[in-house]
């Protein structure tokens, strides 16, 4: 949720941090969007200009390719076989820790939410019961709405004022991170704290949200923190895991963290691994995958174990995830061959409803980006939604006449008699007056006949709009559970209708089964995940039998939904203008070659370069390059310079900071010996160039880059086709790819934005514009 | 099994097919193994020289990198967006077909085995019962042994004489194929037919084998056949799917086929996908994975559906795989926290036993390679094993006094009263007198107390040695089920012993649960698969609860086993000297650079080259290069030639065959226009150079390679470290990587063998020798 906040905040904050764009000259600078600003003139809140056909230059890439400079190679060569074994063992230890801590956080969230929500519902229920007798139910309504708003307000305040990146589920941000885009502050400790507090508030506040999505983000933050062996926020450095202080290793651990989060959220360790791979892995590595799986397993086990203690049943490992679909027995709810077309039809409905959800949310997000970008406005909107949710729920329960007899099988914690006769319970209330997780479970497992079709229809309708409105608020919360809930409701409705159409006696259309299929269809229609979602659903039901129908349903809903609009996460990523790389180059891009794609001319540095030149190049804010090819001129020849390496802005910054200069004038080498440790200590928050003072004398010194540059950067000739460049770039997780001519001279540089620019639109291949939004 | 056969046959046949080694000059030619051949002088069977420290040059690589020459690019550029959509849809159709056919084959094997084994056991049982009364049981024994031997003989004859590559489970071969090594004849129709017939014979013949492993190979063959839209063996070309006639596409489909095979064998679609990824994927692609999953799902569904018809219960989809572990109910067999150390201990036992199994089988295989390489000897050995298996089984059953009362829950198809009193059944016979699949299920699910500890101990011991002897015979059969059976037996034994050590009344140590853990431990100890095996086991039990213990057990058994010896499949791959690329370069290889690794000097061709030169280069049997850098000389300059492309032997062969010559003498261009279709028609069985006649006149002609060469081959500078080269090579599935100097001149060529040569031995980094074995 609350990707507008991210929009506003991401762009405003990156300016401060001095983070700079990729090494791409702003070719299209003159074509920057000229959106009308007249709205702000009329006294309306200042509108943030926005254009979808842009690609922001604000986002840096991660360097998944190791910087193999002399320092690195020397270290690797010094290391013995035992040293590598120890590293491998510490990787496993880190993954175990990630899993353990993620599970612990999930457990804490679950317990706090259960306790607080329990108290809230008890208070409201007691109040309603009191006033049902004496009249004056409006007081109960107000009580409920105020309680909700207070919780939501607390959640929204921390998010909007302290850490806007913690808004929403965090899944789009983690997708971007795993794709190789550095999203500022996304894996910081502060973000985690705000996220956890925020998600508790928004779930307890009764919003139409879930606590599962945020677990994925939380896991990722845990991973980024643990693997670095230090916390910059807390200013503590434990001096461990220093080897892992680079993008390559960190990104691997973040994959494990995200998987552990999925695993804890849904009790789906395999699904977690597949999620990480689906979103992140450009390069599949067996050992890495196995470690990710380990983290996932530890995470679900930790959660399970502590929840079993909380439920006074230690050792009973039956709560593998935050959401528990309950047990689907194979006997009772097996499916028949002739039901498969029905499932596929439901998948199509899910795709349609999902597309509708996404389109509505898209418009809403555009509106929010334009008009609701001030933190206080965001908090007020969140409170409004909370109050409206409570009011709608109350009204629905009040006017519902779906009273069901309270059977012996009915073991709800709060028997919801609300407005019903004694010995009966209000069926609408099982859906509204409950945490969403419990409502989903009830829809899956309550006896046939527990719900009136009208109840389900009304519930679907209202909850659909509430959830759509809620996603994008400045609160920490996920969209998985609301989607499941909407789908389960209309799925169950389908089951009931099918059963009533055909022979009356038979219960072939078990409503619980159809609720499950509906839930899958709706979720698939909204988020459009494929393999991992199938596995997550299968693992959450704990029953492999449903594999094929769930897969068919998810496929159908994806195909139908993709016809209209992209998935919800992709929409929000696009609205942020993130340079996201898909799996393959657009199909019809073979006519493009590196020559057209690359940025040129490129700012190159000499192998031994004047400090003043380096400072000037780095300070040039109009280009903000991040990577510089290093060239060498053959002495005494007028031949053009040849490529001999590649150096990053961050490395140059460290070199300047440590004054690694050669004073040629005195003809002696005073170049300080830098070590890898100096670079690792500075990682990942390299200071901006403005903060480094270089005196006029120092500007005249030279700097020898030989030892620090990556001497063997990947190169391609100019004639290489775009798909080929794309594949190399994506498979190796590159950040800069040097384009050379047949004499090995630098002619251009390909970066992430140069590739992400091209995409398949409705009129064939389209090219996005680059801008410093 | 029967990897010796492969050894002999792979090397002998590749000579005929003219398949040549990689473009690696035989640097170490002079160091070819000088193994003593004196054995043959003494009249013993001719010994095949064998040395593990060799890497065979016989194996070609697959070209996972697209050959982006002008023809290809022109075709891609001509293709519209709709064209690409149609291609995508046909990929899905092919995957669906692969799944369907694989499921159908699995179903056929299952039904035939069930029927034949049923008849066999009925005959033997009837015979034993007859002779138990009148005496003369030796006749029964002989009948049983002869029946078994006849079946096994048939299976062994087809394998040994017609298609030796069909021996064994085929998993090592498929691993190699997915790794990028072309194994001759591994995906041919004939192989499939022999495989299916062979596996039926060996399972019915009562060998200690399973029919699951061969399904993976069968699925791969189906995939390779269907995706090409033609059968060379049947000489039918359906003129469809011509676009898929290249290594890149074919390998993707073979991944899907292998996954479909796993899925049909174990009812584990997700496990199948993970198997393919674990073994094959160098580059993870979301759409590809999704298609693989689709094939897997269709495969298990097809099997399930047809088996339900066979079992007269259409629509009851409860047989997702060939092996059915039966239902593990969560209630009855949940585990407790304090059992986890026990599971880990069992994992260690599994690792030890697995290592023992592998070591014994390794010695046996060496023995077989040396002395049992003639087909008739192989058939005789297989028959001997069959007879011994029957004899041992008979003896065990005869001397067993483990008679159990026949309870009402006992629903075996053949109530095995053998040698027991009326109303009782012979417990040893449930293990021996049954197909292995049924025996596994009985061990998992029979009531506590069904087996006597002595019975289980004896069974484990005998079956261990029988299975070890059997793996490697010239029959089609897998090692999964025997491993599971051994493990289940000693696992159940552990469970019984644990229960008897502790309090008598409690059944906390449910023997079925321990049987499952033992089975996982033993299988893990032998094959050492990790993630995919965990998921396969979880899916086969249909219960997610066991995820963590199974994973811990598999991890332990892998770690313990790896301490002693590699996994069984890896041993057999190594014994074949296959240039197998692991996931990463050896850890301590940073001191090596492309300069040391590459082969040089390289045979280069000019862009416009004399036909005679090309023919001579291709005919040079001492080098047998497969890829040639194409260079261009600047006209009128004496500068060294620069790299401008790369061309393959197979392409040159097609060009020569079609006489694509330029007759310079007559100063007119007669170069025929070749199309991609000509290359696709020739794929994958390109004729040897010897079969192409080039006249003396034609030798004087020139050939223009510009249009056909890959104009943008990947290159690396000489200083690139081995890990970096390795990563590039592995991630992109390359076959040739050109090493250039800083002037873009060719200095060397890195191929698969140059990288596979380096491995971590006991004394650090070791280098294997290359040889034309």
UniProtKB/TrEMBL annotation, chains A, B:
> Which spans are transmembrane here?
92-113, 141-162, 192-210, 253-276, 288-310, 340-364, 376-399, 454-474, 480-502, 514-538, 544-565
**SMART domains documented for this protein:** CBS (SM00116)
Q: Compositionally biased, Basic and acidic residues: which spans? A: 34-45
Q: Does the keyword Transmembrane apply?
A: yes
Where does the UniProt entry say this protein principally localizes?
A: membrane
UniProt xrefs under InterPro entries: CBS_dom, CBS_dom_sf, CIC-7, Cl-channel/antiporter, Cl-channel_core, ClC
Residues in domain CBS?
709-767
Query: One GO cellular component from the entry?
Result: lysosomal membrane
* UniProt region (Disordered), positions on chain: 1-45
Membrane-protein topology = Multi-pass membrane protein
Biased segments, Polar residues type: 1-12
Q: Name one Pfam family in it.
A: CBS
List locations, semicolon-separated.
Membrane
A GO molecular function term, named singly, is: chloride:proton antiporter activity
Q: Which UniProt keywords apply?
A: CBS domain, Chloride, Ion transport, Membrane, Repeat, Transmembrane, Transmembrane helix, Transport
Q: Record's family?
A: Belongs to the chloride channel (TC 2.A.49) family.
Quote the protein name from its UniProt record.
Answer: Chloride channel protein
The species this protein belongs to is Scomber scombrus (Atlantic mackerel)
């Amino acid at each position: 949720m609350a990707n507008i906040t991210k929009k506003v905040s991401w762009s405003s904050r990156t300016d401060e941090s001095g983070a700079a764009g990729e090494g791409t000259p702003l070719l299209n600078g003159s074509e920057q969007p000229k959106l009308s600003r007249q709205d702000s003139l009329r006294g309306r809140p200042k509108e943030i200009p926005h254009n979808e056909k842009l690609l922001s230059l604000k986002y840096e890439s991660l360097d998944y390719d190791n910087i193999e400079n002399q320092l690195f190679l020397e270290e690797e060569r010094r290391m013995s076989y035992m040293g590598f074994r120890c590293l491998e063992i510490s990787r496993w230890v880190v993954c175990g820790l990630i899993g353990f801590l993620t599970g612990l956080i999930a457990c804490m969230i679950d317990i706090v939410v259960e306790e607080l929500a329990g108290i809230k519902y008890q208070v409201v229920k007691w109040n309603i019961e009191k006033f049902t007798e004496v009249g004056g139910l409006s007081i109960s309504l107000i009580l409920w709405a105020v309680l909700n708003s207070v919780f939501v307000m607390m959640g929204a305040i921390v998010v909007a004022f302290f850490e806007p990146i913690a808004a929403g589920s965090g899944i789009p941000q983690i997708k971007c991170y795993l794709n190789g885009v550095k999203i500022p502050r996304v894996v910081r400790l502060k973000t985690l704290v705000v996220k956890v507090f925020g998600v508790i508030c928004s779930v307890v506040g009764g919003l139409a949200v879930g606590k599962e999505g945020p677990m994925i983000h939380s896991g990722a933050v845990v991973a980024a923190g643990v693997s670095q062996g230090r916390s910059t926020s807390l200013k503590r450095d434990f001096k461990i895991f220093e080897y892992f202080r680079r993008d390559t290793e960190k990104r691997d651990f973040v994959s494990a963290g995200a998987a552990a989060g999925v695993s804890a959220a849904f009790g789906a360790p395999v699904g977690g691994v597949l999620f990480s791979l689906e979103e992140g892995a450009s390069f599949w590595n067996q050992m890495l995958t196995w470690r990710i799986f380990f983290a996932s397993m530890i995470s679900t086990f930790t959660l399970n174990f502590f929840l079993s203690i909380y439920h006074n049943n230690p050792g009973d490992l039956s709560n593998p995830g935050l959401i528990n679909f309950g047990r689907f027995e194979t006997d009772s709810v097996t499916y028949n061959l002739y039901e498969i077309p029905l499932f596929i039809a439901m998948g199509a409905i899910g795709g349609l409803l999902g597309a509708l959800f996404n389109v509505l949310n898209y418009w809403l997000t555009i509106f929010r980006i334009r008009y609701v970008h001030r933190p206080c406005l965001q908090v007020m909107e969140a409170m409004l939604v909370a109050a409206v949710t409570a009011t709608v729920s109350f009204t629905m329960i009040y006017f519902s006449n779906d009273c069901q007899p309270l059977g012996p099988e009915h073991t709800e914690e709060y028997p919801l008699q609300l407005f019903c006769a004694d010995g009966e319970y209000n069926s609408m209330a099982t859906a509204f007056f409950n945490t969403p997780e419990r409502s989903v479970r009830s829809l899956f497992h309550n006896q046939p006949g527990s719900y009136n079709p009208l109840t389900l229809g009304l519930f679907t309708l209202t909850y659909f709009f509430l959830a759509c409105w809620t996603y994008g608020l400045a609160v920490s919360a996920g969209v998985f559970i609301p989607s499941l809930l909407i789908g389960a409701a209309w799925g169950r409705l389908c089951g009931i209708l099918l059963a009533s159409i055909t022979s009356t006696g038979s219960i072939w259309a078990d409503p619980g089964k159809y609720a499950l299929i509906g839930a899958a269809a709706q979720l698939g229609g909204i988020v459009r995940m494929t393999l991992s979602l199938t596995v997550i659903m299968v693992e959450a039901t704990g029953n492999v039998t449903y594999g094929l129908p769930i897969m068919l349903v998810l496929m159908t809903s994806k195909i139908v939904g993709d016809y209209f609009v992209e998935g919800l996460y992709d929409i929000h990523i696009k609205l942020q203008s993130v340079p996201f790389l898909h799996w393959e180059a657009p199909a019809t891009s073979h006519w493009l070659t590196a020559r057209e794609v690359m940025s040129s001319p490129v700012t190159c540095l000499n192998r031994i370069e004047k400090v003043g030149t380096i400072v000037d190049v780095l300070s040039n804010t109009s280009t903000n390059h991040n990577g510089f090819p290093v060239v060498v001129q053959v002495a005494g020849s007028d031949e053009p310079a040849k490529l001999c390496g590649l150096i990053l802005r961050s490395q140059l910054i460290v070199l300047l900071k440590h004054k690694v200069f050669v004073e040629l004038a005195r003809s002696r080498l005073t170049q300080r010996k830098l070590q890898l440790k100096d670079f690792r200590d500075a990682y990942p928050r390299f200071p901006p160039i403005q903060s480094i003072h270089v005196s006029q004398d120092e500007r005249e010194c030279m700097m020898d880059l030989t030892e620090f540059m990556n001497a063997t950067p990947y190169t391609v000739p100019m004639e290489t086709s775009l798909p080929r460049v794309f594949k190399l770039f994506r498979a190796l997780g590159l950040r800069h790819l040097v384009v050379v001519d047949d004499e090995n001279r630098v002619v251009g540089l390909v970066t992430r934005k140069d590739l992400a620019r091209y995409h398949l639109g409705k009129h064939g291949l389209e090219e996005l514009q680059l801008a410093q939004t």
